[in-house]
Design a protein that fits this description.
Layout lengths: L1 E3 L4 H14 E10 L16 H12 L4 E11 L6 E10 L4 E2 L2 E2 L6 H9 L4 H7 L29 E5 L3 H14 L3 E6 L2 E6 L2 H9 L3 H10 L2 H10 L3 E2 L4 H12 L10 H5 L19 E4 L14 H20 L14 H7 L6 E3 L7 E3 L13 E4 L8 H8 L5 E5 L4 E6 L5
Parallel strand pairs: 1-4, 2-10, 4-11
Antiparallel strand pairs: 2-3, 3-4, 5-6, 7-9, 8-9, 12-13, 14-16, 15-16
Helix pairs in contact: 1-8, 11-12
Length: about 425
């Protein structure tokens, strides 16, 4: 596991990008600042897919991703039938610059959940990776004007403190615009100011990339999402509908208003593999080894985004091996599978996203909604004049499984259950 912050993101980005490029499968997971904006917006077994999308859009729009987990599973070149897992934990927080001053909500129960699993709030607030939405910009923050600098001749220099990225950029822009006989460059937490000749100044302006470097730094993590969309590697997540919706909302475009799921847009991000843990044993299952940086995952179950992304990918590879052997009738025919065979075995669930507690059990990103396999709703009515007590009905039936009750008069209600076996 590697924690990615603003202190090491630029340094590690080339290797992250390389591992994404080489990956057979990528696991993802997110930690949120909240998941429900109103107590009235609850999932229900009565929800159709458009209704669920509308509810979840309202639920998550005010929140942000505090930590994003990505694990790249790369086929080993040294060991047969083995994949090397490269987990990353990205600490994320929107930056503030000029007119761009993002606002997001926090939910007490979500913060309590993060605290329970030792989430580093200081690292998130003080060292997080920037994540401007692609395509936004603050314009040119520099003012106009000119001036002169007294002192020694060309070649002399001095430094000015600039403790953060914003100040470093703004200070350089302002100094360059006001004083034509100097040039600036970033040196750690300082701005180095050097007196130059007019000719040297013109040459430096031709090759200047200050604006591009600043935008690249502020875009930050958005480059990861952009690269995932470009490479279109198979992704897997556990109950990842909220993850995908918030990723789309924060890094691609605001979620469309309405009750229709923008599946085509979400599909541009990933190839949507979903998985559930199975217990069947099959010979020659692929082995997964962690990098040295993530060795602690071998000893502990760390509930953080990188670990959850690792577990989602691990289970997916093992399940793919099971599916690839489902028609094999004898043990003698069991063998290690190639990466292509494993991914092909998952084709029936490609672009399926698990849906919790709804009329359908998954969302299809590249086709129509699946036909509901839930039991038909029950009509419940009281005898005589006694009004229906919904709380009493829920308490009575919930001991047998998931149940939702929707009253439509004082004496009648509809009952939805999760499955046929109670």
């Amino acid at each position: 596991m590697v924690d990615i912050t603003n202190e090491n993101f630029e340094q590690l980005w080339p290797s992250i990008k390389e591992n994404i490029d080489k990956a057979v499968l990528i696991g993802i997971d997110s930690e949120f600042s909240g998941i429900r904006s109103s107590s009235k917006l609850k999932n229900s077994l009565f929800d159709s897919m458009p209704e669920r999308y509308a509810i979840q859009r309202q639920n998550i729009s005010p929140f942000t991703i505090t930590q994003f987990g990505l694990t790249a599973f790369v086929r080993s070149t040294e060991r047969v039938n083995t994949y090397v897992a490269h987990p990353y934990n990205f600490y994320l927080c929107p930056p503030s610059f000029g007119r761009l001053d993002a606002r997001f909500s926090c939910q007490a129960s979500s913060l309590q959940f993060l605290r329970r699993y030792r989430f580093d709030f200081n690292k998130d607030a003080c060292s997080s990776v920037s994540r401007w939405l692609s395509g936004t910009g603050a314009g040119d923050p520099g003012g106009s004007g000119s001036g002169t600098v007294s002192g020694s001749g060309p070649g002399s220099s001095w430094s000015v403190d600039a403790p953060d990225t914003n100040l470093c950029y703004l200070l350089q822009k302002e100094l360059r615009q006001r004083f034509r006989e100097i040039w600036t460059s970033a040196q750690g937490n300082n701005v180095l100011v050097t007196r130059v000749t007019p000719g040297t100044r013109r040459d430096l302006e031709v090759t200047d990339d200050l604006d591009e470097q600043f935008v690249s730094t502020m875009v930050g993590f958005s480059r990861v999402i952009r690269h995932l969309r470009t490479r279109r590697k198979p992704l897997v997540g556990h109950n990842c509908m909220l993850d995908l919706m918030l990723i789309h909302h924060l890094f691609i475009a605001p979620l469309p208003v309405g009750d229709q799921v923008n599946g085509a847009s979400l599909n541009k991000l990933h190839q949507g593999l979903t998985s559930h843990i199975g217990s069947t044993v099959v010979l020659h299952a692929p082995a997964v080894v962690l990098t040295d940086q993530a060795a602690r995952y071998n000893e502990e179950s760390a509930h953080e985004a990188g670990y959850d992304a690792y577990m989602a990918g691990f289970c997916c590879l093992r399940l793919a091996h099971l599916l690839a052997h489902k028609d094999v009738t004898t043990v003698d025919l069991h063998r290690p599978m190639s990466s292509r065979e494993l991914m092909s075995a998952l084709t029936p669930v490609k672009n399926h996203v698990n849906v919790i507690r709804g009329t359908v059990n998954h969302l299809s990103l590249d086709g129509p909604d699946p036909v509901s396999e839930r039991p038909r709703w029950f009509h419940l009515a009281t005898k005589g004049e006694r009004p229906l007590d919904v709380t009493e009905v829920v308490q009575l039936l919930s001991q047998y499984g998931a149940v939702d009750v929707r009253p439509f008069s004082s004496h009648q209600a509809l009952v939805a259950v999760g499955n046929f076996r109670w």
